[in-house]
Design goal:
Strands 23, 26, 27, 29, 30, 31, 32 and 36 form an eight-stranded mixed β-sheet that branches. Strands 24-25-37-28-33-34-35 form a seven-stranded antiparallel β-sheet, with no helix packed on it. The protein has a four-stranded antiparallel β-sheet with strand order 2-3-4-5, with no helix packed on it. The chain is built from one helix and 37 strands. The longest helix has 4 residues. The two termini are 19 Å apart. Belongs to the glycosyl hydrolase 43 family. Pfam families: GH43_C2, Glyco_hydro_43.
Length: 511
């Protein structure tokens, strides 16, 4: 199993942003000893709450997920691309890792574990309610008290642009009051969509680092007060200015063992989702944080003063040993037994799941997905359709509000053909993007070249050389999620098993 190309090193030991060039939305980070850990939003995909590890804040690997299934399970039997896990906070306290997140339709959840690889507790609903998002805890070592701050989603609650604070039991199981608005963005001229707060204690102050202004063009704010419940002073500490980094905000602050301060945040990049940047951070003479180059994002910067590490990045390629898939893959809903079958040989064997929605991949829970890379890339996989069921199909897709896929389909006469289909945003079913081509052996090598602007070109090879298929397809995001690459196997409604499809040698190479 290999990885995507690592961060491009420049002369004199510098790094280049973004350090995670794919959709690791709403990142938060914590240091434990010499190790750094990062989690991100996973919305309705399962497993959720990805866990990344680094020793230098530049090279990251994916070590697992903290949330095996979304709850309640019945709610996530079908895709819920804009629901689920929003903007988690990752902390380490009392020799345990803690993750808090908001589900905008249910409330604030908490899980914890003795180690980052688990075992993680079942989700505990700390505060029920609609529109409760972006929670972050704080355990105050000076007083022994615990606190929680969260934001609001107007789409569910009718409220936004404010932060609410609570006292919390130190064991993270209960809030001790009804909550109080501690920052009201409506009272700050020019501020809107204040959200994503991260709560810290530093230099005798309570600090809230929180973005405002929206993901496309917003900024990062800092708030401080000697008392948790306010009133808070505020400043803008990171904004786009004359750079090409739109909306640089929402992330987390971390301090290295040597005392250097760094801030990891996202940038919204359309179909590529929210990519992650690393910014230097310092404190000015008045005790306020200064992020980036005097408040503007850096593109290239000297690396953190940390021991050199071997190049690393989250895995993308997969040979599916023993029918198992790597940690980089997520289903578009809670998985069910039998979707993927383990076996003694290599290759991913997916069951052709019967569905009434075979013509709209966006409705299907049994798609196995990973993130679309932020650099121009070629994606390849080989698929064999081991199904005689008329209408059974399997393939490689680019998924968002619009989708396109290429793969194999079984005809009524038993023959297999390469087909290429797409659906525009708002369309309720797919259309043909190219003429069917015979696949005599029921096997094909599929390729999608995703170029600049997420413009995707499809091609295939049934053994007589590569052939292009259809027009250019421009990938689109889902509402909060960057475009995804997906593998699937389907069959029309009917009775009895519908066979399987086997995928081998999944590869992503940057162009």
């Amino acid at each position: 199993m290999t990885t995507t190309p690592v961060n491009t090193a420049t002369e004199h030991g510098s790094y280049r942003n973004p350090v995670l060039n794919a959709d690791w939305s709403d990142p938060d980070v914590v240091r434990v000893g010499d190790d750094f850990y990062l989690t991100a939003s996973s919305f309705g995909r399962a497993p959720g709450l990805p866990l990344l590890h680094s020793r230098d804040l530049v090279n990251w690997t994916l070590v697992g997920h903290a949330l095996e299934h979304l709850e309640p399970a019945a709610e996530f039997r079908s895709p819920r691309h804009d629901r689920g896990v929003w903007a988690p906070a990752l902390r380490h306290h009392d020799d345990r890792f803690w993750i808090f997140w908001g589900d905008p339709d249910q409330g604030i959840f908490q899980i914890n574990a003795p180690g980052v690889r688990g075992p993680w507790t079942r989700p505990h609903l700390l505060k029920a309610g609609r529109g409760l998002i972006d929670p972050c805890p704080l355990w105050d070592d000076e007083s022994g008290d615990a606190y929680l701050v969260h934001a609001w989603a107007k789409s569910r609650s009718g409220v936004k642009n404010r932060l609410t604070g609570h006292r919390m039991r130190p064991d993270g199981t209960e809030l001790l009051d009804e909550g109080k608005v501690i920052v009201d963005g409506d009272r700050i001229p020019g501020w809107f969509t204040l959200e994503g707060p991260k709560l810290y204690r530093h230099d005798g102050w309570f600090w809230i680092l929180a973005p405002a202004g929206g993901v496309e063009s917003g900024w990062q704010g800092a708030f401080r007060c000697r008392e948790f419940f306010g009133p808070y002073e505020h400043r803008i500490v990171l904004e786009q200015r004359d750079t090409d980094v739109n909306g640089p905000h929402q992330g987390g602050w971390v301090r290295t063992p040597a005392g250097e301060d760094w801030f990891l945040h996202f940038q919204q990049r359309g179909a590529y989702g929210r990519v992650v940047h690393l910014q230097p951070m310092r404190w000015d003479a008045d005790g306020w944080p200064v992020i980036g180059a005097d408040g503007a994002p850096v593109a290239v910067h000297p690396r953190p003063a940390l021991p050199p590490q071997p190049p690393a990045a989250p895995a993308t390629d997969d040979d599916f040993p023993g029918g198992r898939f790597g940690k980089q893959w997520q289903w578009t809903a809670n998985p069910r037994e039998g979707w993927a079958t383990q076996h003694s040989a290599d290759g991913l064997r997916l069951t052709c799941v019967r569905s009434a929605d075979v013509d709209d991949l966006r409705r299907l829970p049994n798609l196995l997905t990973q993130r679309l890379p932020g650099l121009p890339s070629a994606v390849e996989v080989e698929v064999r359709l081991d199904s005689e069921e008329p209408g059974a199909r399997a393939g490689l897709a680019v998924l968002g509000d619009a989708f396109g896929w290429i793969g194999l389909q079984r005809a009524a006469d038993g023959s297999a053909h390469v087909v290429h289909r797409f659906a525009e945003q708002g369309a309720d079913h797919e259309r043909d993007a190219g003429l069917p081509h015979p696949a005599p052996d029921g096997r094909v090598r599929l390729r999608i070249e995703a170029g600049a602007g997420a413009r995707c070109r499809f091609s295939y090879d049934v053994g007589d050389g590569p052939r292009p298929s259809g027009p250019v397809f421009v990938a689109t995001p889902w509402r909060w999620v960057g475009a995804l690459l997906g593998l699937f196997a389907l069959a029309p409604t009917g009775t009895g098993p519908a066979g399987t499809a086997t995928f081998t040698r999944f590869r992503i190479d940057h162009l």
